[in-house]
Amino acid sequence: MDQKNRHKIYLNLKVKILLITSIILIGSIAGISRIFYKKTYEQTEKLLRNQALNIAKSAVVAIEVDEFERLTKTLDEKDTYYNILLGKLKQINEDIGVGMLYTLIDIDDTEYTYVADGSGSVEIGYKQQKKDFSEEAAMAFQQGKAFTSEPYYVETFEKYYISAFVPILNSSNQVVGVIEYDYEGSELSAQLREITLLIIIAGVILIIVAFVINSLILRRMFKPMENLVGVMHKIAQGDLTVKINTDRQDEIGKINIALNETVLSIRRMIEIIEEASVRVAHTSQNIVASSSDAAIAYEDLANSTTGISEIAQKQACETEKTKLVLEKLDIDAKNISEQINETSQIANETYENTEEGVQVIRATQEQMESIEQSIAEAYTVINGFVNHMSKIQGIITTISGISDQTNLLALNASIEAARAGENGKGFAVVAGEVGKLAVESNHATNEIETIIEYINGQVNQVLDAIKTSVNMTEEGKKYTERAGKTFELIKNSNKQLEEQIGKIEVAVLEITDNVSNINVNMNEMEEVSRVIDSNTMNLAAITEEQMATSEEFNGMAQMLNQEAEGLTQTISKFKIK
Questions:
Q1: Domain coordinates of the chain in residue numbers?
Q2: pLDDT digits (tens, 9 = 90+) for 85-97
């Protein structure tokens, strides 16, 4: 596989990781936004229902129950108390500014009867079907308790409303009527639209920022791995001139250092082998030339029986030259043997360095597994933190409810103080301060809830980042496994190189043995030359024997030359300059 295809695979892998993490992030943001929207809607609805209920309860406080009970029996619009009650309700309506406030009585099986309408649009005694009201109205009449309705849409006014029903109880704790307050939900709609817009904008910004950060992190993490795989691929092809970055201090840096030491050892070993192969080839050529000369001399000696003395002298001279050549060959063979031993030691060191690289990669894999376990523990701790934050949020909700009740009590106290006149002014001041404290407490709890929601959002992002880190750790483990396989290939190549060196060493030993045998024969030839005048038959026999030995020596020299050429071709596959 070429560099372009490898790069394409890495790009596809990064895109896959980026897509997976982005999908998880988008899903998480969408889920959080949905929960936030739902919680906000519920809190806003609850707040508006409480406001409607508080307004209705404050209106009940303003009603004189005995006079109201008397008015429900006469339903006389000229009654003095009717005008007083109508004025109070209108004043409350004007102070509030939104909604409608009116009183009802239940004196019919199918209809409710209006007593006083704060908006002034319905006259006293007007009847309306019970089915037009929410079921909370009937529950207020039947149970004598306050109720609020769910938000509902009125087509006539084209608005949403929330109704609060508070019973009017006489001294005998009997329901003599119900005061209803219809709170306009325009504020609810406006807040929901604003919150929806904010959620959309925040979600888009978070997705874009997370996508950019995720892309940068992936690019930074994959770059050293891509470089390392590219370097290993070049080494596997025989390029030993490749430069390896050894400045990093992490696990990738340790692998780079081990790989660099391996490359240097292989390069030194190949240089030594290359020099030795050149010397072996040169020596074998000299041997071939010398053996050819000796064969010619032996042939001339066998074909001629005249001038045996001159031929014997010439043979002695040639024998002396041959001995010198053989001595030089013996020295060269011993040097080659020593260099091959050194090369074998370097090959062993290279094998050990490669084995050390394999151990480093295994240690890296164990470290990656340890990192993965640490991330899992961090994930568990953060989940526990989220659970505690949920409990805190529940406590804040309880405090908010207490603040609302305190505010209601302060409002009731203010009304009672107003009714008391001059004597209640001091009490009214105290009630006002209590109301302010309740409002400030409510604001504080709302701010705390907002902070908790923000913390929850950040914690969820951390959880997502931890999940992404787990995925990236898995990818890192895969790359270290791939690096381990590459080191195994290098180790096997070193093993094969050691085997080739062993074969060459055996061949050199055979040459050394043959040179020793030839030296013995040369000594015998000198002895024969001394007595050749007296025994030409022995000279012929010895000459024939020497010719056979020379041919055998020539064959061995050619075999050594072939071995040297094969070794040269093998090491030529490696690029060291």
A1: 1-220, 238-377+474-572
A2: 999 989 888 887 7
